[in-house]
Amino acid sequence: MKKSERPHVLMMSEITADGKLTLKRGASSKILMKYMAPETEILLHRTRAECDAIMVGSNTIKIDNSYLTVRKVKGRNPLRVIPSSRGDIPLDANVLKPDAPTLIAVSKRASRERREALSRSGAIVLEMGEEEVDLPSLMKALKERYGVERMMVEGGPTLNWFMLKHCLIDEIRLIHLPFIVGGEDTPSLVGGMHIEHEDEMIRLQLKKFYLCGTNLVTEYDVLYHSDI
Fold this sequence. Notes:
- There is one protein chain.
- By secondary structure, the chain is an alpha/beta fold.
- The protein has one domain: Dihydrofolate Reductase, subunit A (3-Layer(aba) Sandwich), CATH 3.40.430.10.
- The protein contains six helices and nine strands, in the order βααβαββαβαβαβββ.
- The chain has a nine-stranded mixed sheet with strand order 5-4-3-2-6-1-7-9-8, with helices on one face.
- A hairpin with a 2-residue loop joins strand 8 (203-212) and strand 9 (215-223).
- The chain is globular.
- The chain starts with 7 loop residues before the first strand and ends in a 5-residue tail after the last strand.
């Protein structure tokens, strides 16, 4: 897919010094986000306000029950985009509240009952894929049908991996938290990668680093093989 056919995508996340997103598997990322400096919280919400859409995975919704709205700065709420192959996000999830528009991308595996229930909750339900949500097709639809030019991903390890695997992430912005969590199965920034050779590594180019309050922030361009 050509970059011009999809939104420009920024992945943004807080991570510990050892690259973890949470305290343990199944724990909310909000626990660690409490330790972000106030200035960094403002950066996060300002970034949301600068984007037309914000994407997280369905598992993040189940664990964190995030609002994904702009609260620390003035600005409009972005379109909330949730890939969920079965459409099985809780019907009382905060992303289904009417404070911002929400699009749930499902596959053909999602039952008619689930689709109808999500629609009644006010969400746009969009079928994208057979067994799993087809992320490249979803990205193309977001730009063509919904006018999304710039999107932010605040995903967990699974969504982050699939977005990178399909070469759909352009930039990465990391908020570094001065903690070590450990844990062999504790979720890290990207999961699902079982590479066999160094040529399969996804290369990044550091373009900026700075202190935001007490937090180090690093910004990278993602370099895919076609860019090198």
